[in-house]
Amino acid sequence: MKKNQLDGVDNVNEVDYLLRHAMSLGININTVLMDRGYLNAGVIIGVESLKLKYIIPAKGNPKVLKY
Known about the structure:
This protein is α+β, with helices and mostly antiparallel strands. The protein has one domain (about 5-55). About 35% of the residues lie in helices and about 10% in strands. A two-stranded parallel sheet has the order 1-2. The relative contact order is 0.18. InterPro entries: Transposase_11.
C-alpha cells in the first residue's frame, strides 16, 4: 500500500479499509488499538460489525466505560 493511498479518506472508511485488507491477507486480529482521533460512533460501529474487540483512549465522562 502506498503512503498516500488513504489521503483524504475519513476515519470510518480508513479503519474499515485497513482492517478488511489485513483480514484478507489472513492476518488474525484479536484487538484493535486506536488513538483518540478515532473515537467516534462510525468507527466503533464499523469495528463492531467486523466482530472485533477494540481499545480507544478517551477523556473521562459518564458515557465511557472503564475496564
